[in-house]
Protein 1
Amino acid sequence: MIKVDKEATRAAKFHDLRSYIATWLHPNTTHACRYLYGEDVQDQRYHVFEVDQGKCFNCGAWYGPRSGELHHKQGGLGRQRCWCLENLAWSCPKCHRAQHVQTRWYEKKDSIGQ
């Protein structure tokens, strides 16, 4: 169940009404987790680009704010996939793809005659 810290969320003055600050703390820190949507994601993306100076966390290659990608260190669909700086890194597209499971599509063969 999502628990929103309404006062902290209001104070953060997010652009998107869906963005919020949770009531739980980010692991090993003293601040609450952030969950972002829309324009707030873009703001955080540019912030991570600046913090990491455009360098890929894995290979060190430089990628600009439009060609690089934002990587969640802890992904998934649960509450661990927050938008806190500790959970984000700048990445080149190649390294980012390598960090995620790739779906491979194969043509289904007919079991009769093949």
Note: The chain has one domain: 6-98.
Protein 2
Amino acid sequence: MKRFASVLFTLALGAGLSGAAAADETKAPSKKPAAKSDWKILAAPDVKFVDVEGMKGAQAAALWGDMKKGAHGTFIKWPSGFDTGWHRHSHLVRVVVVQGTLTIEPEGQAARDLGAGSYFVDPANSRHRTGCKAGGTECVFFITQSAAFDMVPDEKK
């Protein structure tokens, strides 16, 4: 009999709790302010490219930050046949190729062709040359840095 009473008590308690939960669901929603959204969504047609000063033919579209001032994530676009010449950057650059065939030639290594989906890290002060393979489509690649972008020409060979 004690066991039966215990089961009845448990069932009654459960029914009471589920009834309380159901009553809570019928109450009006609270008037808490909506949380601030940090979403930033850009469809491809909304990404706006602008000419890069000092790099004729190159264009950039910042997704976050400002490549002239500090940390940033930026799309870069080069026409087919574009060549930077030998240069280096003061800060590490991470690169993902999105479109076209990017060419990269680190000093002391053979030049490589990198298609869409390819990735490389350009260490700070590493002498190299980059370009967009001639005869193909324009190159679009994404770079990210924790500091402002610079390009220091170095034509000594």
Note: Confidence is low (pLDDT under 50) at residues 1-24.
Protein 3
Amino acid sequence: MFVFTGVAHFNRMRHDLVKIVPPFVPQPMAAIYLTGVLELMGAAGLLVPRTERWAAWGLILMMVAMFPANVRAAQQGIPLRGRPATPLWLRTPMQVLFIGLLWWSTRG
């Protein structure tokens, strides 16, 4: 999942993603590129036993930090790839699931 979402920060979808960045974030396009790099690094880090725990915790922190953008997209009806953003009643449990799986992966 993190590879696919990370790549989206560098293709045409980045123009949709920049629209959901909360207004208090300076340099929204730079934030999109930075989070894309972090997602790709986190995905790679999960595959390396020496770094998997750090990668998981980094991705957890990033998912929490990026959740306001998902809330903004849902509340303001900002489309992503021409489709409505995932509604919060579905997005919130998905986010909790992904965070829970990452946390679970750190316990080994």
Note: DSSP finds five helices and no strands in the chain.
